Amino acid sequence: QVQLVESGGGLVQTGGSLRLSCAASGGIFSTYDMGWFRQAPGKEREFVAAIRGSGVSTYYADSVKGRFAISRLNAKNTVYLQMNSLKPEDAAVYYCASARRRDFGSYYSKVLAYDYWGQGTQVTVSS
């Protein structure tokens, strides 16, 4: 069983930056691929970014590419999401999730590919 706890959300102005953290426990962290998703009120959960267990491969949604960066420190059992140039449309609850699949590279953007989820952290962007 894997437990995930997000932190770092808050209120930021348009154009500002924020760094989210996701602390993992209950498993061998380096064997899990990790993803960030977000969900705005009344909308479906959508993919934001993902990173392989080794950290050598990353994936991004087109809407955040060039502005967000995912990274991980396996020694600290933590994955990060650096968010720059924030826009009002980035406002949402952000969730981290873990996966362990042999075909992760084909399904990294799919909610159903992930086995464990955190409870989320709120990001608000004011204009």
How is this structure best described in words?
This protein is mostly beta strands and about 130 residues long. About 5% of the residues lie in helices and about 50% in strands. The protein has 1 helix and 11 strands. Strands 2, 4, 5, 6, 9, 10 and 11 form a 7-stranded mixed sheet that branches. A 4-stranded antiparallel sheet has the order 1-3-8-7, with no helix packed on it. It is globular and about 40 Å long.
Summarize the structure.
With 127 residues, the protein is mainly beta. The protein has one helix spanning 104-107, and strands at 3-7, 10-13, 18-25, 33-39, 46-51, 58-60, 68-73, 78-83, 92-99, 116-117, 121-126. The longest helix is centred in the C-terminal third of the chain and has 4 residues, at 104-107.
Shape: globular
Biggest β-sheet strands, sense, barrel:
7 strands, mixed
In terms of DSSP E residues, the strand content is over 45%
Structural class: mainly beta
The helix/strand series, from N terminus to C terminus, equals EEEEEEEEEHEE
**Terminal CA distance:** 40 Å
Number of strands: 11
Could you name the ranges where pLDDT drops below 50 across 5 or more consecutive residues?
none
Question: What is the tally of helical segments?
Answer: 1
Global Rg: 14 Å
Average pLDDT number:
96
Helix percentage: under 10%
